[in-house]
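Sample pair:
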Amino acid sequence: MNALLLESAPAFLDAAPAEDVLIRARADVAGNGSFGEQWVVVDQTNVRVFVGGAHGTVQRVPIAELIACRSESSVGGGAIVLERAGEAPIRIRYSQSEAAKFSEVVRGIEQLREGKAFHINGHVQRNRCSTCRRLLPEKDGICPACIHKAATLARLAVRLWPYRLRTMAVAVASLFVTAAALAPPLVTAMIVDDVLVPADGPPPMEERLGLLALLVAGLVGIRVASWAGEWVHGWNATWLGARVTADIRAELYHRLEMLSLPFYDKHPVGSLIARATRDVQMLQGFLIDGVPYLVTNLLTLVGILALMVGMSLHLSLYVLLPVPLILLWGAFYWSRLRMLFTRLMQSWGRLTDRTVETLTGIRVVKAFAQEAREIGSFNVANGGIRAAGIRVKLHQGIFFATMALITALGMMLVWGVGGQQVLDGAITLGTLVAFYSYMWMFLGPIQWLGEMNDHMSRAFASAERIFEIIDAPPEGAIEGAVVKRPPIAGHVHLSDVTFGYDKSKPVLKGVDLELRPGEMVGIVGRSGVGKTTIVNLIARFYDPDQGSVEIDGIDAREMDPGHLRSHIGMVLQEPLLFSGTIVDNIGYGKPGATLAEIMDAARAANAHNFIMAKPDGYETPVGEKGTGLSGGERQRISIARAILRDPRILIFDEATASVDVETERHIQVALERLMQGRTTIAIAHRLSTLRDASRIVVIEDGRISEQGSHAELMEKRGTFHELVQMQQATSEIIAVAD
């Protein structure tokens, strides 16, 4: 037993008898079709359906009485269907947001019904925050209202440890700048009380002028020292912010490269690009313009408070009166601004998704003359950003205007109460002037800290989105230590493999297939029967839901995917080339390959002649996705790339499906050279190309229906014979039409 799917249940379910419960899942649509609640509880022998809460009904269905358990889709959702002999089926309906979860429920019930080992994904994707129950921006995503600010700040602070000397320089400079900022009001008070309006009567003019010159020189010296401290502080703080951000960006990209294909199936590429660009940029702004001055302003507040209390405790209390209002107002707007900024970033992610998708498929857009439609879709997404941006700016304006009003109240209190104390002789005029200066200095950082909610809202939401990716588990055992073994021989064995991208609708169903080293096996079948899925499992792009894929007798799940794929060469129907030169693309799978090795691989792939016919030869630039080359040229370069890698397992997925007959002939010659002595798996569009295969495997409805040599299968007159006859008939029709 591998995993349980147990959601937190209400009390009435806990009271129900549920020994050895394997599944406890909540459906969000009631029996009458409205939004409500039903519960499905599954143990080893029964499926129980709770309808209507604590005072509702319970239906119990013994698993032994089930004919089948399946899921069916409908507009906006779906349903689990429990089929029983001679009785009406039971339907448990759910919304589309719960579809993935109930795919696992169906899979688990079917395993129990068929007497197989119970194996499901027990993780339930969350649509709501488990703390505040708000809807999440993304499934299993971050709740903007429940971000742990201290934890996020601590994670950022840990990344300063490698640069602790620079961090210490910033700390020392912060202390120096704070001390330099606190000194001028004290000097100003001395100028007023000892030079301009001396309390004990005016001393001789020469003495007053000398003291004035000395105090002004002191102010100049303080200003110069403050400039030096600010320069050291600003330089080191900027360096630290940029460096830490670069480290986080590198860590984020490293993790993106290490994540599995199922992760990318669930996360749009545009959203990931937004996290690696806009979110990182937002975080960098906070680290450079926020954190260093956060420390300085906190130190300034402490120093000012101490000096003001020393000068006049009574007047200090009046200065502090607006502070609770400022803090309460900032706290009130903290969550509101954070939510708004999160929604703004999500709008940017949707726009990025749409733009990437449209520009990637620009040929299709133009082929169907749908430019106006795509412009309209862009305008809708762009309008979402505009609306979110307006809401942010509106709330920012309200926030800052209110902060300014509260600050002005503090100024009025100082002049009113302080002026009264000067007239009463309780304090001197110089003390009031110094107090007024400190009040500005005190309320300034308080207001700045309130305004920092603006920056912190955006930065912390960005940081959490970045850390969400960094914390995602890497692909397979890619981080683990794999016992070093001899090079792979190429013995592949699929044992009772069941797999589905939607777990309730498996593509492969109990497939057993063995490929011996050096054998060429062709895989054929109609579209959607699971041919490409088989090679995806062999390359460990996905792991089977049930059963195992063994390479040389070792379960692929115990192997480092990088080690496994280093012995696999793939030639796909649509070869992907990168921006660069032809030599760069051929050498992509073998860094450090010599030009001679690359040219030998190109000759073996029948690509050398057309490469040399180009003006720049092997240095010919290749545009994004191979623009500038024909389909056959791109395919032969991809074959050369596979040849150079010298793999033990070769996979051809419709490698000649989209090229003309003449180009196919050149490619076939190259493939024959490449396949010699290697385990080869070929998914072929043209069945005639598999005549020389050691064995042909026919897939129907996710299962192997027949296998054998080309001659044996033709003689058998089964599915393969039918496919060949259909293809020949189609070719004859096309020939007549031409």
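The domain at 5-113 is CATH 2.30.29.30 (PH-domain like).
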